[in-house]
Every structure is written in C-alpha cells, then in structure tokens.
Design brief:
Blueprint (H helix, E strand, L loop, with lengths): L4 E10 L2 E11 L4 E5 L6 H8 L7 E6 L2 E2 L5 H4 L3 E3 L12 H13 L4 H4 L3 H13 L15 H13 L5 E5 L7 H14 L4 E5 L3 H7 L2 E6 L2 E6 L1 H5 L2 H6 L7
Parallel strand pairs: 3-8, 3-9, 6-7, 7-8
Antiparallel strand pairs: 1-2, 1-4, 4-5, 9-10
This protein binds adenosine-5'-triphosphate and magnesium ion (MG).
Adenosine-5'-triphosphate binds next to strand 2 and helix 1.
Length: 246
C-alpha cells in the first residue's frame, strides 16, 4: 500500500531565508503522526506546501501515490483536508451553515450543481455537528461560540470532507488543560480510520496521541520515531535544551 504522504527533499526559501532545507517525511496509511519543533522551525510552512498554498522550490510531495507537488488547494482537496493555526470559521454564519459550506466544498466545484442543496451535504454537516458536540448550538452564529468551541468547529470544518489525510495545525493552541483534553479525545475519535498529521506544541498531547513523531528543527527533519524513541533521542533533547520533552 502507498504511504498516505511522502515528502522527498522538499525545500522552500522566502527571499534570503531558507525555511525548509530538504525535508524528508513519510506518513503511513492510518497512522497518527505528530510534527513537533521549536517556533519558526517551518512547520506551518510545510503544511502550506503540502496543501498547495505555497509552491516548493524543490523536492516532491506525493499523497496516496499521486504526485501533488505544486498543485493548488482545490486540486488537492479530495486527498487532504487541513485546519489552520488560527481559528478560521465564518463568524456571521450559523454553526450548522459553517459545516454545510465545508461539506459542500468537499463535493468539489464541478459537483456543486448536483449537490446543492442535497441530502448528502445536509447529512454530512449534521453528522459532523453531532461529532463535535455542538448540536445544541447549531443555529447560533459561530462568532458567539467560546474559543474552544470555535476550535472544535474548525476541526469539524476540516473533517467534513471525506479526505483520507487530515492536517491539523496546533489544534489545542490557546486552550486550558480540560479543553485540550476534550479536543484531543475529539481528534482521536473523528480521525479514526483516516491518516493524521498534526502540528502540536503540547508535549503531553503529542505523546498521548501520536503513533510516530517527526521533529523539525531549522527546516530539517532531525528525527522520526515512536514516542518512546523520540523521548530518548539525543538530538531531540539537545534541540529542546533538555527541558521540554517529558
Ligand atoms: N510568507 C512568508 N514570507 C516570509 N517569511 C515567511 C513566510 N512564511 C513563513 N515565513 C518564515 O518562515 C519561518 C518558519 O515559519 P513557520 O510559520 O513555518 O514556523 P512554525 O514552525 O510553524 O512556527 P510556530 O511554532 O511559531 O507556529 C519563520 O522565520 C517565518 O518568519
Ligand atoms: Mg506554525
């Protein structure tokens, strides 16, 4: 079986800044893979390259065996879904309408005539509404949700597609411990049967969720392994100055 995602020697510069310097990364089908690394390491930029928002200067990106290097976001949307580091919901739309838009987007622009308004869009939006625990807020404007609820909606928007590969950029950022624990349980439940690549700073979350972890430091993957392997990896310890890895 093809890996869910393969990056081969991927590089990116912004002007004189060499942000990614030959990144190799393999994510197996069905695994939950965490990407960790210090601030500014290039993690979000890597997501921009994978999801097609930014073109790499070099290297190849392959999703489910298909070369998607340099393809635009709409052209990779069937293969992967992504959430952003900052919450991105339509504040003026109701919670359910946010999910309807996402489910409609999942159909792809060529199918919109056939799908809108359709049972499939409605069913998928409502199923996701239940999964993220916001059924009792369905008709409220998203802007009125608490921060953690907006992040849950953000997750629902990413996952309302049936893309097999999910990229989440710091899904628990800004949450307190209880909120983060709930968000992680939600992520675990709704990524079941799919492949997850998640950027996360909360080490408890990373070590609890991930099957494997890759560590990005100054634009290079310096280690990939199981949580147990990463915890004792000397280069990783050094990159985190010894203190942060639990
Ligand atoms: N569009 C851009 N133009 C110029 N520089 C950029 C651009 N996007 C990112 N960078 C730079 O690339 C580097 C990596 O940024 P990136 O956001 O990918 O890091 P990150 O690992 O996600 O960090 P954090 O953990 O803080 O989110 C930073 O130095 C950033 O300033
Ligand atoms: Mg980032």
């Amino acid at each position: 079986m093809n890996p869910a995602l393969e990056l081969h020697d991927v590089s990116k510069r912004f002007g004189a800044t060499h942000v990614l310097r030959g990144v190799d990364l393999h994510v197996a089908q069905g695994e939950r893979h965490a990407l960790i690394g210090p601030n500014g390491a290039g993690k979000s930029t890597l997501f921009d390259l994978i999801s097609g928002r930014v073109r790499p200067d070099g290297g190849r990106i392959v999703a489910q065996g298909v070369d998607i290097t340099g393809r635009s976001p709409p052209r990779v949307a069937r293969r992967l879904a992504r959430s952003f580091q900052t919450t991105s919901v339509f504040g003026g739309l109701s919670v359910l309408d946010n999910l309807r838009c996402a489910a409609l987007g999942a159909a792809g622009s060529r199918l919109i005539d056939r799908w809108w308004p359709s049972r499939q869009v409605e069913d998928r939006a409502r199923a996701m509404l239940d999964a993220i625990g916001l059924a009792n807020r369905a008709d409220e404007p998203a802007a009125r949700l608490a921060y953690a609820e907006q992040r849950a909606l953000d997750l629902g928007i990413a996952l309302a597609t049936d893309a097999p590969l999910i990229l989440l950029d710091e899904p628990t950022a800004g949450m307190n411990r209880a909120e983060a624990a709930r968000a992680l349980a939600l992520i675990r439940a709704i990524t079941e049967g799919r492949t997850l690549l998640v950027i996360e700073h909360d080490m408890d979350a990373v070590f609890g969720l991930a099957d494997r972890i890759s560590v990005l430091v100054r634009g290079r993957v310096i280690a990939t392994g199981t949580p147990a392997e990463i915890r004792v990896h000397a280069d990783v310890q050094a990159a985190y100055l010894g203190g942060v890895i639990p």
